[in-house]
Amino acid sequence: MSAPPSGGGALINEVLTDDELRAVLTHLGPEAERDAFGLVCRRWLRIQSSERRRLRARAGPDMLRRLAARFSGALELDLSQSPSRSFYPGVIDDDLDVIAGSFRNLRVLSLQNCKGISDVGVAKLGDGLLSLHTLDVSRCIKLSDKGLKAVALGCQKLRQLHITGCRLITDNLLIALSKSCLQLEDLGAAGCNSITDAGVSALADGCHHIKLLDISKCNKVGDPGVCKIAEASSSRLLSIKLLDCSKVGDESIFSLAKWCRNLDTLVIGGCRNISDASIKALALACYNSLRSLRMDWCLKLTDTSLRSLLSNCKHLVAIDVGCCGQITDIAFLDVEGNGFQSELKVLKISSCVQLTVAGVSSALKSFKALEYLDVRSCPLVTRDSCEQAGVQFPVGCKVNFYGSLLESDPSAERFF
Q: Which interval of the chain is the signal sequence (predicted)?
């Protein structure tokens, strides 16, 4: 280090305490500025490391121990692997043992697609991470109730649990959550198809603060479970996703309309027993909250449902009625006269075979903010027919005329 200035001024490291340097660090904005702070000298690097809260790494046990020693203030750790480029076995139980013993203050842990971990390692997290409130083990295919029940028992502050694609999970885990994790707010269990109404009902008995629930493709869940969670969570429930839950019908929607007046997002695609009556009730009950609604392949729905939603739900930004074959041009006639300016940004009407260019034109007159329009597999609505009719799409609106219905567009899917 260079000598003090000739005027006798003190060096900054001699003047500022560690606490004062931490205060300087907290006022730095971009990550690059904070990283530059640590390049000044070893002391500043030590302070910067102790204040770092988030870590993302791919590391074995030895490296994890070093990370824990250097970043003692870390609260969030992400060891997720890419689903398409996973390094098997990647993260293993030995890594979880180190995490449980060395990152005792951890609040958030993400282990998505870590296919090498088992119940043995996950159970250790329950022993060591008593302050954990968010755990994501989506698509960790070896995990079963045994390991995650240990987490539920030990991590009773848990508020968010994502177990999407963990097919070995059953009702037993939901029962354990209902007894231990009473502050749970967010459960993502899509594809856990051994879960039944009994498990969802048990969850509702103990966890009364559920805000976000995703049980898509849990095809053993039907009206009894959904009705129970709707009543228990009541106005706290903001989002419920029931994609391809074939046993879900009108009773569930009526219950959501009755109890969940703050519902923001509803996914009922593939629930083919839902009819206009329940959707009309939902539109009237959640007119001030509903923003995103996916109900593709709900084959009983007609223009009545869609008109009710578009005419009442003033904050609706995205709706998907793809493959609802009874939807016609009538759904979009004169809906601009509903007393408010529509905020709709995403309209998916793919494979609505009765729709014509006239219906699309009516929709465009009402939805000035539209950013994405999906008209794939609508035989009467093509690029040529729209050009011939002089249809004017909003500036910046992406119109999807072609492609497989199996292909999703991220610009639209983010709403659902």
A: none
pLDDT tens per residue across span 294-312: 999 999 999 999 999 999 9
Of 365, 369, 372, nearest to 348 by C-alpha is 372
The DSSP output letter for 168 is: B
Report the b/e string of 62-97 with b at 16+ CB within 10 A: eebeebbeebbebbbbebbbeeeebeeebbbbbbbb
- Domain count along the chain: 2
Min mean pLDDT across 78-82, 118-122, 282-286, 402-406 is at 402-406
Domain for residue 405, yes or no? yes
Give the pairing type, strands 160-162 and 292-294: unpaired
Sign of CA dihedral 123, 124, 127, 133: negative
Return the CATH number at 373: 3.80.10.10
| CATH assignment of the domain containing 19 | 1.20.1280
Long-range contacts of 70-74 (CB under 8 A, 24+ apart): 73/105, 74/103, 74/105, 74/106
Alpha carbons 35 and 45: distance in angstroms, whole number: 9
List the Cα angle 345/347/350 in 5-degree steps: 155
Strand partners, 309: none
Cα distance between residue 269 and residue 319, in whole Å: 11
Q: Mark residue 216 as left, alpha or beta (left: phi above 0; alpha: psi -120 to 50; beta: remaining).
A: beta
Tens of pLDDT, residue by residue over 146-189, are 999 999 999 999 999 999 999 999 999 999 999 999 999 999 99
pLDDT at 272 over 60: yes
Record the pTM.
Answer: 0.89
pLDDT over 90 at 194, yes or no = yes
Domain span at residue 408 reads 288-416
* Contact of 252 with 227, CB cutoff 8 Å: yes
Tokens of residue 356, six digits: 């014509």
| Residue 232 domain-assigned (yes or no) | no
Q: What whole-number distance in Å separates Cα of residue 368 and Cα of residue 336?
A: 10
Structure letter (DSSP) for residue 411: H
What's the whole-number mean pLDDT along residues 342-350? 96
Q: 3-state class of 134 per DSSP?
A: strand
Least confident of 10-19, 137-146, 256-265, 364-373: 10-19
